[in-house]
């Protein structure tokens, strides 16, 4: 096998192995989807944040809620805390990078909101602090991590530990589970 073929095969094999193990997370997904529907029906919102690829996932999932996943229905309150450059730069500059999500959760998080912090290591301080602040505000603090869980798993109310130790594979599982959650939520609001 060529080097390229072997590299591709490694990615595909790891991906398939991780995705197959997601069947074991059906009860978790069902529980979280139900809590998101309950939150949105009560007028609450879902906040998302993460770093790098996980910041992109946060934006992607918030857009599914505000705009649509597959079918037309009313707009749903999803906010990515990764997008406002003035808030991110002022927060990072004045109070430190570790505070950039906690500050926004303090400003926007209300009792009953669902707050989803995404960190594959589970140890990014800004994500850990955002989850800690979410609990202070009476939100449901949910962590999406890789297999290890890290500090995020310790501080969150609920943790989805994607079944892979590899950052990219965990991110792929996060997005797949995120899409399933958005599909479920959307079906609860589609008439
Ligand atoms: O997308 C990737 C790797 O696939 C990177 O951008 C990755 O998200 C960044 O290195 C992050 O800073 C990693 O942070 P975390 O997931 O450990 O919290
Ligand atoms: Zn990536």
Automatic annotation (TrEMBL):
Q: Identify the keywords attached in UniProt to this record, alphabetized.
A: Carbohydrate metabolism, Cytoplasm, Isomerase, Metal-binding, Zinc
Domain SIS, which positions? 36-191
Q: Name one Pfam family in it.
A: SIS_2
**MF-aspect GO terms:** carbohydrate derivative binding; D-sedoheptulose 7-phosphate isomerase activity; zinc ion binding
List positions binding substrate.
51-53, 64, 93-94, 119-121, 124, 171
Q: In which pathway does it act?
A: Carbohydrate biosynthesis; D-glycero-D-manno-heptose 7-phosphate biosynthesis; D-glycero-alpha-D-manno-heptose 7-phosphate and D-glycero-beta-D-manno-heptose 7-phosphate from sedoheptulose 7-phosphate: step 1/1
Assigned EC number = 5.3.1.28
Q: Which InterPro entries match?
A: GmhA/DiaA, Phosphoheptose_Isoase, SIS_dom, SIS_dom_sf, SIS_GmhA/DiaA_subfam
CC cofactor: Zn(2+)
Q: Does the keyword Isomerase apply?
A: yes
Subcellular location(s): the record lists:
Cytoplasm
Which free-text remark accompanies the cofactor? Answer: Binds 1 zinc ion per subunit.
The family line of this record is: Belongs to the SIS family. GmhA subfamily.
Q: What is this protein called?
A: Phosphoheptose isomerase
Recall the taxonomic lineage recorded for the source organism.
Answer: Bacteria, Pseudomonadati, Verrucomicrobiota, Verrucomicrobiia, Verrucomicrobiales
């Amino acid at each position: 096998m060529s080097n390229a073929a072997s590299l591709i095969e490694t990615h595909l094999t790891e991906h398939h192995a991780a995705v197959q193990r997601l069947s074991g997370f059906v009860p978790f997904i069902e529980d979280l989807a139900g809590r998101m529907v309950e939150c949105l029906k009560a007028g609450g919102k879902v906040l998302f944040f993460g770093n790098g690829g996980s910041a992109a996932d946060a934006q992607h999932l918030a857009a599914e809620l505000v705009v649509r996943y597959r079918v037309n229905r009313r707009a749903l309150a999803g906010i990515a805390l990764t997008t406002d450059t003035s808030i991110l730069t002022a927060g990072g500059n004045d109070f430190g990078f570790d505070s950039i999500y906690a500050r926004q959760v303090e400003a926007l998080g209300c009792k009953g909101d669902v707050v989803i912090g995404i960190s594959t290591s589970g140890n990014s301080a800004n994500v850990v602090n955002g989850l800690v602040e979410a609990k202070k505000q009476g939100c449901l603090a949910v962590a999406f991590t890789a297999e290890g869980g890290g500090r995020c798993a310790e501080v969150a109310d609920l943790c989805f530990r994607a079944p892979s130790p590899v950052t990219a594979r965990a991110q792929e599982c996060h997005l797949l589970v995120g899409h399933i959650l958005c599909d479920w939520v959307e079906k609860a609001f589609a008439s």
